Amino acid sequence: MKKEIQALLDIASDLGFSNIVDELKRIEEKSTNSKCPLILPLVGEFSSGKTTLINALTDSKKLETATRPTTATIYEVHFGAEKCYANVLTEKGESIHISDIAELKNDKLSDAKVVTVFDTSNRVPSTTVLVDTPGLSSPDPKHKQTLVDFLPYADGILLVSDINQQITKSLTDFISTISLSKRPVYLVLTKSDTKSAQDIQNVKKYISENIHIGLENISCVSANNDDLSQLYELFSKIKTDKAEILQRVNEQRIKIIAKELATKTEDLLNSIEDDKEIDEALRRKKYELEKLHRNIDGLVGNMEMSLSDTERNACRKFEDIIFNKLDSIVANSSSNIDAEAISAINNTSSLIISEYKEDVRDLLRKKARENRGSENEVNLRSLEDVDLSSYSVNGISYNLSLNTLGHEYDGAIANGVIGVGVVAAAVAAAPAVLGAGGAAAAEGAVVAEGAAVVEGAGYSLADFAVDAALYGIGTSGNKEKESETKQENKGIVESMVGFVTERTMAKPQRRRVIHDYVDSKLIPNFNSEVKRISRDLLNVIKLSLHNEAAESISEMTKAIEDLKKARTERRAEFDNKKSKLREYKNVLLTY
User: Fold this and answer.
1) Which end of the chain is more exposed for a tag (fewer CB within 10 A), N or C?
2) What is the DSSP string of 5-22?
3) Are 87 and 97 in contact (CB under 8 A)?
């Protein structure tokens, strides 16, 4: 195989097809390095037990099993490591180290591209990497696309199915597709503890006869009962067959590349018989590029008209989430409401925009699939490489002050209450000084003063009777001690006032202010930002697709122009190149 790879490398390098050169080098590394791991994704319907099975094979046993499809993230699990940990690769290209695998929560991995888990378990050979993939029939199109995009890197497939469920059509269709790629298919039937031994044999026989998976490639397991013996036997068989598996899969990969190179070589040969044909070939390439540019403009223009529903869904989701979050923050009366509100707004907008960017990619893929095979076809190979990480919400303003709202007059109310307490204490001593009539008058003044200061703020004097008495005027004769007591009691009264105003004034005011802010400013601002981001995303995607088209055509154009130049200026060199192309064509026909 090394000889075949080198021959293809020479041809691709000589013709200037750099993308094919890179792909061949990856195959060469995989075929010559015995330490290269075997990549085995676990594929199955949602809730078939894939993650539960991986947990049973690991020492950490901490991967989160979801009750619903939540993420399109790929989990690569490596075995035989010195310690358990994980690395998260984000869409921005950032690598985040996670020391405790339990911290990997599906709902927090929306911006994760790949999660690489390292586990100390030796239940699986260290030369085998298991990959937990999204459910095969997940309702989220992003999940299916993630699986499809990963399959070219797979060396074999571990199908996982609940033994109590029928093998679905989507699973059989998947098996048929994979068989064409020469990748071996293994079947793991989970929850086998729910079946008798005879039932298990019947199921295995039926699958072997009707779905064409050999009995030796079927294992039945019960992760809950830690009964994985058949799976361990399967891993042992795969390890023994590793070299043969890789050779068969890589041979198929090489055939595909050889076919692509043969097509390109044929195009070049058809373009160089004479100057007229060369010029015609160049014109065709120029026309092809112009056509691609038109198709790209048409695709993106079609996207612009179709994005409105996607934008509305993002804005509606943001509105629902942020209303609940801000209302909860106000209700809990935390120590720094403004900081929590700003954090909630930023985090929620970041999450929604991250999901929205993927929705835009998905919509573009859908539009491109509709044009596949037609005159308007567009290749989206570069779409996954477009960096969208810098496009985020940055135009939302926050000018509220919720921390102090409703407490503006706490100090004045507290002083009023304290004053009432002082007068009340004086009234208590009034009979000795003023007589009964004077005392009655003083008492009336206290009531009037208390009502004016306290009830004016919406309270009754009874709410503060104890606090007012606590303040007192002191008769100990120790002025320093008396002053300290007054300050302490003043603090108690102010705290009581703050507690009551928080319940009766601050919370209702905050709710009104928050709802008004969300309705009149936050939601309109977010909607405007989504539209701006939509324009920016389409512009950068459009530019990337145009560049991809130009690069693809330019390689062929350059090859043709080099031939024309050689024909005109150096006849011998031209004849040599022409001879080489014929030689390449003959070589490629042998693959």
Assistant:
1) N
2) HHHHHHHHHHHT-HHHHH
3) yes
Positive or negative: CA dihedral 545, 549, 551, 552: positive
Q: Measuring CA to CA, which residue among 542, 540, 537, 539 is closest to residue 296?
A: 542
The pair of structure tokens assigned to 554 is: 């330019």
Q: Shortest CA distance to 115 belongs to which of 134, 138, 95?
A: 95
Lowest mean pLDDT among 117-126, 363-372, 474-483: 474-483
The per-residue pLDDT for range 564-586, each reduced to its tens digit, is: 676 666 566 667 777 888 888 88
Reported as a single tens digit per residue, the pLDDT across 18-34 is 888 888 888 888 888 87
Both tokens of 236, joined, read 């042992």
Q: How confident is the model at residue 446 (pLDDT cuts 50, 70, 90)?
A: very low
Question: SS3 of 234, please?
Answer: helix
Structure tokens at 460: 């009754």
d(CA 502, CA 190): 56
Q: pTM, whole model, 2 decimals?
A: 0.48
Q: Decide if 497 contacts 454 (C-beta within 8 A).
A: no
What's the CA gap between 228 and 222, in Å, rounded? 6
Helices within 161-274 (DSSP H only): 169-179, 197-210, 229-240, 242-269
CA distance 584 to 266: 10
First CA to last CA distance, the chain? 11
**Rounded to whole angstroms, what are the CA distances from 121 to 74, 79, 140, 231?**
20, 6, 32, 15
Residue 528 and residue 452 in contact, taking contact as beta carbons nearer than 8 Å:
no
Query: 377, 369 in Cβ contact below 8 A?
Result: no
